[in-house]
Amino acid sequence: MSSGVGLRTWCWRMAFSAECSFFLNPTFSFTPRRRFSVTATTSSITTTLDAKTTKKNKEKVIVISGPTGAGKSRLALELAKRLNGEIISADSVQVYRGLDIGSAKPPLSDRKEVPHHLVDILHPSEDYSVGQFFEDARQGTRDILDNGHVPIVAGGTGLYLRWYIYGKPEVPKASLEIASKAQLELMDFQQHEDWDAAVQFVVKAGDPRVQYLAANDWYRLRRSLEIIRSSGSPPSAFQVPYDSFKEKFDSRKSEPSCVGTFSVDGVGENLSKDLDYDFICFFLSTQRLELYRMIDWRCEDMLTGSEGILSEARWLLDMGLLPNSNSATRAIGYRQAMEYLIKCRQQGGKSSAGDFYSFLAEFQKASRNFAKRQLTWFRNELIYHWLDASQPLENVLNFIYDTYHQQTQNVVVPDSLKMKKAIASHREASELKVYHPKNRHFISCEECSDILDWIWKTQG
Hints:
The chain has helices spanning 4-24, 42-56, 72-83, 108-113, 130-146, 158-166, 176-191, 195-205, 218-231, 241-253, 267-272, 288-301, 309-318, 327-330, 334-346, 353-379, 393-405, 426-433, 449-459, and strands spanning 60-65, 85-89, 116-117, 150-154, 278-285, 384-388. It has 460 residues and is of the alpha/beta class. It has four domains: 4-56, no CATH class; 60-170 and 244-287 and 382-421, P-loop containing nucleotide triphosphate hydrolases (Rossmann fold); 176-237, no CATH class; 289-373 and 434-459, no CATH class. The chain has a six-stranded parallel β-sheet, with helices on both faces.
């Protein structure tokens, strides 16, 4: 192929082959950036091949997410055993020491068998932010790769994973002086528990979006004020890397020459090709009704035994923390349990079976709603391949293992393992509308008598 004629002939054949493949197979995907033309030169061919080689040589990182109760931790553990991997937790509650039951933290035996990162690194009185997670998780990833192991990031905190994959906004970090000043400005409001007045204060300072924060989220309110005082602009003024990637992908997708070439299985690869790692992302889920049942039973399991979530909530209260006052006490399960125990203490350690079942129902409902929000969030995260958690674990493991080792960048999930993102049928939608928990452990007053005795002995 040394002569110009030979090169032109070869390029013409390649272009003709690509056009034929497209018309014979509508899902065949190619874009002008990879398409050879009659006027192609040796340098352009080399550039294209170099780009492919660079992508192929990227270091691989596996990400496993899914709604609460879907089985992420078990899948990550078994996968780490096969791949000589280490697990980075992307769970906003597992970072806290002592919060084991409510966060479904992997037991110590599993953590001894496979190294786990970002578990038990903070006291519950400390706050932990998505920016801190980004720094910690990225450093952990680098360390794992440098040790010759495979990073497996597992968890369901959507914003943690989005920043981890795409990068964090370039928001200025407040100096100690500005941070202290912002804290002093909000201190009176917080001491008097005047959340609404504090919000209006920050709105007038320049961030109207704080009106949509969860009540008593003092950390994010204070952080917004710090950013305003540091830069003169609210957090929303700073570019979010994910939005840039999404806009770039949408612009590629809308090009006339690309219409019809973006298959469902290829979306993630197109979106992630400009990222610094080769992220192989999976979302493990199951049909909504089955998921809700598993969540309800899981909430029950967290209340059984002498060392359940109520015991952990009691510990939080005894150290002087209040529900919904910081990252740990805002967590689903802990907030409801702390509020229930405060009510019991106000009643001299007494609780009726009705009060207990009201608490349990609220705990279950909050957990189901959280799972619903997770499904909505990750439905819009195009980089994830959805897997059916109801399929045999061995089949799911084999697929992810083979995907990790394959040379091609295009991941195609077999039909047997695919999980639909939307509600499967009208029947399922109708059943969801009238869904109510069917408890497995706590069915009548007798089943909760041990818990009521524990409350009487410890909360009186």
